[in-house]
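Per reviewer request, we include the raw input and output of the structure prediction for the construct analysed in the revised manuscript.
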Amino acid sequence: MEPFKQVEGVAAPLPAANIDTDVIMPKQFLKGVDRAGLDRGVFFDLRFEEGGGLRSEFVLNQTPWRDARFLVVGPNFGCGSSREHAVWGLSQLGIRALIGTSFAGIFFDNCARNGLLAITLPGEEVEALMDLVATPETCRLRLDLEAQTIAQADRLWRFEIDSSRRHALLNGLDAVGVALARADEIRAFERRRLERYPWLTPAQA
């Protein structure tokens, strides 16, 4: 995964509450055996008309938000079914972080496991950010995971994040990567365990 340290870019407002994973990634995009093409599926029914044309009223089809790196979202974002494809698709679309008051639990965990930073802030702070990013002149943010800050011009917000999630995101580690980073400790534990319980050693042929 790509490490997340400091990222700057456009943020788009999605203020609706309870945007579920079927809206983020409709079920027809779950049929593939790989992750290819999931960027097209993101918010498909909101982004595209039945004939395939773009819906001009949807924020991610408008300048400058079509190049969004961040989304400022309404409460309970990512509720519904536990489809990891929703996070994969958002990442393929170029989204690096989500900012909101609350996220559905499984979706929140899927974000952490796939390198997508999900930030929770108090309601008044999210509302202030939502107002700022709704205007083209003030929609650029700078997210600094090392300092745990969100900046817009001279404004600054601080956020909290679990230390283990922060470490994984800063170093671009998925769950396997986190385990492999401690491979020496794991092997040392295995050696101590076999010394203490030698009967657990597999029988030699």
